[in-house]
Design goal:
Helix content is 39%, strand content 16%. The chain is of the alpha/beta class and 174 residues long.
Length: 174
């Protein structure tokens, strides 16, 4: 494969643009309109807030969540963007990595628990780091589609697959 002489910033912008164009095409094919983070759909399917620092893992989670018939409200890659997403986005459930870079997400999880938001850890750790979070659903990376489905069904009930994404999931990272 031949390397193109574009700086990484330009390549990243091109990849992101292609990704969003493809998302719009998929949504239109399913008769849905792409929505902003504050958007709503008539018979709204549950929307997921993804808090994950690794971009590729976050994108994989987004695709899997959408393939399971759920919407993605936002993707947050760090604590400030997670706080912003919690304060500004409409979501029904959250998937949270235990660690974003060098920072733990315990405060974010505490806020989600206080709000009564069904939340599951999706992490490389083998257990919750805080005893108060030990009863939360836990999905250890790497995981299968079936394992993610089981965790989400435990949070929101039975899922209908192959419906595409119910909303726009612009990244909330700053």
């Amino acid at each position: 494969m031949r390397r193109v002489g574009l700086p990484i910033d330009n390549v990243s912008r091109i990849v992101v643009r292609i990704y969003w164009v493809k998302r719009h095409q998929i949504a239109e094919a399913h008769g849905e309109k792409m929505l902003d983070r504050q958007g709503d759909v008539g018979a709204r399917r549950p929307r997921v807030l993804i808090i994950e620092d690794e971009v590729l893992i976050a994108q994989c989670l987004e695709e899997l969540v959408c393939s399971l018939g759920l919407g993605v409200a936002a993707i947050a890659h760090n604590l400030p963007s997670a706080r912003k997403a919690i304060g500004t986005c409409r979501f029904d459930v959250a998937l949270v990595d235990l660690r974003l870079g060098s920072e733990l997400t315990t405060e974010i999880v505490d806020v989600l628990q206080e709000r009564g938001t069904p939340t599951a850890f999706v992490t490389g750790y083998d257990r919750a780091l805080e005893p108060r979070h030990s009863a939360m659903p836990f999905l250890q990376k790497p995981f299968t589609d079936g394992q993610l489905r089981a965790v989400l069904e435990g949070l929101v009930g039975p899922l209908q697959t192959d419906q595409g994404c119910a909303g726009n999931s612009k990244s909330a990272s700053a």
